């Protein structure tokens, strides 16, 4: 037991220093590492496998909704980036510039893509001719670079992995429907795969994507009461299609500009998983996204029949599509392994020893609530499949309860400031809709309006910050 | 019929101008497009879906052989690139340099990765401590940039997509076994997925990877008699591990340098598929890698029951895991559609009309040999699954026969030069092993030694180029 305490002590307690807890967890569980290039991270296999599971879920849903993958160049000529005014103002300060190819200086600087609207629109402009070809429903999986001054692995790094969808539509209505459909797929992914409840809504003008008509977002609440913007979907209207002269012959025979959307989620989601579900023992991974769903630890594995049985169970679970690891390393004790996989957040630990085999049972320990129960070896695959679903549902329920506890309604700016200091979380209130009011709140408190939720409640007639007439109910929070 | 001829005429004949045929095929089938950045291509959905199928095959095989995916930074500091002497000499002339981040000039230039040995070794040096942690079996899927003066889509572009495996091993024997294992997985993929026969062997010193001890390769013969290097696997020995000071505590307690491999294939393979299997009507896609395996074209689709039956067949085939498209567009005639999907190389076309339904049959046309036969609608899924395998096997057999026809043994340099001019292909002969001899042949004829094949034959005692004592049997060819 002494060893266990020591082991767990390696991770700083959340309550003592949340940022340090986060760093301890990602480093000690081998998810990620700092690279020799400041602000760039290495995603190690245990972190990358989570991304692969997110990719697999989303890629399936994108294809089911008619999207196809493609690939556009990494480098974008400066002149293209400059074509949409708001866009270049938003991104130029944070791009990496390529100035030389081999030993030659380039005639025009190229930026490493911070996002691909401009290069993609330049191609769409070349391709599109008729309404018959619409909609364009394309997506790409790639990395993007945005030069950041202060970075944290997964949450904010100068390079990250993501997907970016870019679609064109004949009508404004179709573009709006696509924008909302993709946001709802993100929300479904967050809840069904990551067990993270999301608030969905629209960004204020101040917070929207550079060049968008409207940006929609899903926002999650982390354990420390800060919000994480977890996915965005933009209705770009005709801002880019006009700037890039993308036209098509419409049904009436006239040339028209198509309506445009883009949407993306990134490896930042992995940071969200850690900060929503993790605890002082380390990671707690939602089962559907966990690289290892069940770790089998044989007890007294030198005893006859133990390893055979352990391998038999592994095979049975794998046949059910469960991701299993059997750790039969003889260099470490079962106790050391328990701690190790607990820290790594493996949802279920299955212990099997000589006495269990005699009784035709296995002990199964849940990572999420630390409970332990014995299960019959008969139909173990089915019991464990069901248990993984139970763990998922319990984790989503607990995360939702926690978020709701941390969500408060404020009546005025003073109450807001006090509550945000004492017990930060989602603040619900009415807002006048004015950028000036929003900017003042941010300057004075560091809190931003996270979104104007789809699910509007009428909490009063005046802005809870400035007392002008209210326009929207909003969620505000400090954010990553 | 007039329309059909016109349609096919759009593609230049192979015999008239092979490079133009290639360009016509990739452009007219919507696989790829040129981008606004010289030498950079856009991979469109029909080309990208082929890459996804290659990825899916390889990713499964990599994981089955114990490899894990991860992700290393896109940008590499100049000082890291400089650490291995041969490597920097090989790559520095063709890298893109990032000199500014946002508005700030960087203290040190960063290159966009041309390959990742250096950045990965800098991390391995930080991570590795003991022999117990070995082997490291890591892979990443990403894009790389190599500044090229003259480019052709898929074959040679300034950016391309690939995977790069990077492994560390305790012993030289294990590294060599890994190097050969990965080459054999590439060969398996080429033959079982792409229906392309490969010659496997070792590169000459002149042709090996910059920094490698030995490079192994798979080489395919294109329809015009030129070779395509299709995948390489490098035994890097301790060249990089010493340069990057990667050490581990060995079994004896002493510090040792691990043995190192790297291996990769890229989107260049798609160029190989086109140039091995294509014909004057356009693409001919091997069924296992084809984005669409069967296209269903309803005949007289306005007649009652035709579309219902067509959808029923689609569903049945999809349930068998077959990739199906049903084209029920009423803007185009069946004849137009036949030409379209023929050009796009869809392996099987299924026609279903009122008379077929009456007779409980469907007509199926094979793209590879243009034969047409009727099949009973009973157990159609099974018939078509079997037929797809037949098509694959026939394509691989024909490509092998063609390659063998184009492979000749030469007795001396004069005969070699004449044959290479009259009927280029793989030239088999003996070689002295001297770099000078190899360089002379390349300078005078443009032909390179493609590999020293594993399957050695003794064709004489003297070098067939220069008459010095022979060391190896080699394959030589002009190459892409
Ligand atoms: Zn206000
Ligand atoms: Zn010679």
Strand-helix topology:
The structure is a homodimer.
Chain A: H1 2-9, H2 18-28, E1 32-34, E2 41-43, H3 45-64, E3 68-69, E4 75-77, H4 78-81, H5 85-91, E5 96-101, E6 104-112, H6 117-127, E7 136-145, E8 159-169, H7 172-192, E9 199-202, E10 214-221, E11 227-237, H8 239-243, E12 248-249, E13 255-256, E14 259-266, H9 268-277, E15 294-298, H10 306-319, E16 324-326, H11 334-343, E17 348-352, H12 354-358, E18 361-366, E19 372-376, H13 380-405, E20 407-409, H14 413-422, E21 426-431, H15 435-445, E22 448-453, E23 472-477
Parallel strand pairs in A: 3-7, 15-16, 15-17, 20-21
Antiparallel strand pairs in A: 1-2, 4-6, 5-6, 7-8, 8-14, 9-10, 9-22, 10-11, 11-14, 12-13, 17-18, 18-19, 21-23, 22-23
Helix pairs in contact in A: 1-11, 3-7
Bound molecules: zinc ion (2 copies).
Q: State the CATH architecture of the largest domain in chain A.
A: 2-Layer Sandwich
Strand order of the largest sheet of chain A: 3-7-8-14-11-10-9-22-23-21-20
Tell me roughly what share of residues is in helical segments of chain A: 25-40%
Q: Regarding quaternary structure, how should these chains be classified? A: homodimer
Radius of gyration of chain A (CA) equals 25 Å
- CATH class membership of the largest domain in chain A: Alpha Beta
> What structural class results from the helix and strand content of chain A?
alpha+beta
Pfam family, one (chains A, B): ProRS-C_1
Organism (chains A, B): Acetoanaerobium pronyense
Function (chains A, B): Catalyzes the attachment of proline to tRNA(Pro) in a two-step reaction: proline is first activated by ATP to form Pro-AMP and then transferred to the acceptor end of tRNA(Pro).
GO molecular function, one term (chains A, B): proline-tRNA ligase activity
